[in-house]
Amino acid sequence: MVGLRKALASAAPTCLPNHIMIGDRAVPEPMREAPEFGADYWLVDITIEDMALRCHWMDTKPGNAWLALGLIHSTEANARAHAEAIIAMSARGDA
User: Which residues of 56-82 are buried (b: 16+ CB within 10 A; e: fewer)?
Assistant: First the structure.
């Protein structure tokens, strides 16, 4: 039984439904489809203090690139959680 507990304790973290793993953190899944034209979305941006930038979907080349990279979220909280997970992973040296 001790062996099983040890194996479970060292197992990789599991991911919640509709979440992705970044390092050892489960964060809400980014948007996989483009928002409606003109709709607000939140961009993961670790270069600013808030770590999430409110944008309006205009079907631009940069917007589509961010969507393809998985950096667009429907809420500020989700984008911020994504950014915090990236920073935590980088700080640990897991990147």
Answer: ebeeeeebeebbeeebbbeebebbbbb
pTM above 0.85, yes or no: no
Q: Which tokens in the block code for residue 93? A: 């040296």
> Which one is predicted more confidently, 13 or 9?
13
First to last CA, the chain: 34
Q: Is 46 helix (H, G, I), strand (E, B) or coil?
A: coil
pLDDT of residue 76: 98
Tokens of 77: 């909280």
> What phi, psi does 19 have (nearest 5°)?
-130, 160
Q: Which of 12, 15, 87 is nearest to 49 (CA)?
A: 87
Give pLDDT tens digits for 19-45. Answer: 999 999 999 999 999 999 999 999 999
Instruction: Give the closest residue to 66 by CA, choosing from 32, 95, 18.
Output: 32
